[in-house]
Automatic annotation (TrEMBL):
Upper classification of the organism: Bacteria, Pseudomonadati, Bacteroidota, Flavobacteriia, Flavobacteriales
Protein name as it appears in the record: Cytochrome c class I
Pfam short name (any one): Cytochrom_C
GO molecular function: electron transfer activity; heme binding; metal ion binding
Swiss-Prot/TrEMBL keywords: Heme, Iron, Metal-binding
Residue ranges of every copy of the Cytochrome c domain listed in the record: 46-135
Length: 135
């Protein structure tokens, strides 16, 4: 009985020490024109449809939603990166790859394959971001 009690107490202590702080990657806004993105709690379905169409036409050569490919998978990307970082990477990949530590790490992880600038507008990048929020 004592062993069970000690096990329960130990488990509670370990789980109580879990780091609940936000990932430092979510604080990184990247480098580029986007300084702040206001995200509504609700998903904008019209924007999602636009973003999905743009993603399919411009991004799927390198990115899949559910698995790594030439570039990283996009599922749960909004849980790992800030909205500003995502949009700046879409809009300003050259400078991001030169100056942003996370982008440089991704470049190394994906064998030095650079992300191409698709010359999208801020509105198109925002639509892609909204689509990515649904993954």
């Amino acid at each position: 009985m004592k062993i069970v009690i000690l096990f329960v107490i130990g488990t509670l202590l370990i789980s109580g020490c879990k780091n609940t702080q936000k990932s430092p990657n979510l604080d990184n806004k990247g480098i580029g024109p986007i300084k702040e993105v206001i995200i509504a709690e609700r998903i904008d379905k019209t924007l999602v449809k636009q973003g999905e169409a743009i993603f399919k036409s411009k991004c799927t050569t390198c990115h899949h939603t559910d698995k790594d490919f030439v570039g990283p998978k996009m599922a749960q990307i909004t849980e790992k990166r800030s909205p500003e970082w995502i949009m700046n990477m879409i809009l300003n990949p050259e400078e991001m790859l030169q100056k942003d530590a996370i982008a440089q790490e991704l470049l190394r992880d994906y064998n030095g394959v650079t992300m191409s600038n698709q010359h999208l507008t801020q509105e198109e990048a925002r639509a892609i971001l909204e689509f990515l929020r649904t993954l």
